[in-house]
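During the no-cost extension, the postdoctoral fellow (Dr. R.K.) reprocessed legacy sequence entries with the updated structure-token encoder. One reprocessed record is reproduced below for audit purposes.
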Amino acid sequence: MDNYDNEDEGVELFGNGGLGAAYYSSNDLDPYLVDKDSEDEEEIEDMTIKPSDLLILTARNEDDVSHLEVWIYEDMSEDGTHNMYVHHDIMLPAFPLSLAWLDCDLKGGEKGNYVAIGTMQPEIEIWDLDILDAVEPAVTLGGYKQSSFSKVLSEKKKKKKKSAKLKEDSHSDAVLCLAWNHEFRNVLASGSADHSIKIWDVVTQKCEHTLNTHSDKVQAVAWHKEEPTALLSGSFDKTLALTDMRAPAHDGVRWPVSADVESLAWDPHTSHYFVVSLEDGMVSGHDIRKVVPASSGCPAKGGEPLFNIHAHDKAVCTVSYNAAIPHLLATGSIDKTVKLWHLKDNEPGFICSQNFKLGAVFASAFCNDSPFLLALGGSKGKLHVWDIMTEAEVARRFGRYRQSK
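Re-encoded structure tokens follow.
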């Protein structure tokens, strides 16, 4: 956290999937295309989101101005050429640190299209991505009693904020991580520099639970996909914790690790496995079934790692599993490289490494709809999409997955 203010133009987090409600089958139905006669046809085409388009959310800061960008990635042909551009963006009031896309309709409908954003401020803003010219968030969770969005972010105002009163159950420091629950779609988890984890109902806009699981900054949270009440968290206190939200007061399971936690992810193919990446460049795999039971007032302790990889020379900021290819993991680091690993039989094998000149690699995400594409962002404020099948070793090992797609 001490270095977040020093990062230039960092692209912080990516999401893929869904601006479905922003697509219109005809330009005549699109409320955003108001002055059709004066609009250039190419511009109109660019603003129309097609079913085949892939969308990427990025949050970045440039010249002390922060904003969210909605990118469109178009596959133009089978020879690998593509087109990528910013469809629209949203100005943000503070330096962005975390994103989580959610489809829960805050207005009571069946589906929505929103993004929750954590920043250096204690509030969580939720923006409607189907509104192109939004000037304020649809919902703000926690934060100061007077909306930070309406304040000028001058040094004078920042100092004044220190004495401002927080809303009840708000975080009291920066929101470092967010995780949306895919099963209970109104539920959002947040981790903060104030050492706490909060569980929010985004519809009622209330904090349902506050977990004081950790003794330092909470850097990562992730809901289990098949057991949606299970929440995994990692902290700068050098521990991981697995909490069952059906009994949040219970200590759950703890794993000690060798350094500050940077990122973690559940294995989409083997539900009892997860990986964690650390500040010292290590990545380790764990099995939640291997637990030493609680005793003498001590919480249950996770077993020894299934494997350890010295993946990078510096902090590993991001890990991402591939949803189509079992055991395929991407890692990104402060050392400016992104690497691919094969974790079959818990015997990690290095596949390849690339430096895309992004600076420190802060974020990575495989696309669920086109699983051979990996979105990457880093400290230079650039977005890069890597087609991993252009790597000879990847194509040799996993080409059959493209053929069966």
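The helical segments are 41-47, 155-161, 392-403. Confidence is low (pLDDT under 50) at residues 1-8, 12-26, 151-156. The remaining legacy entries will be reprocessed before the final report is submitted.
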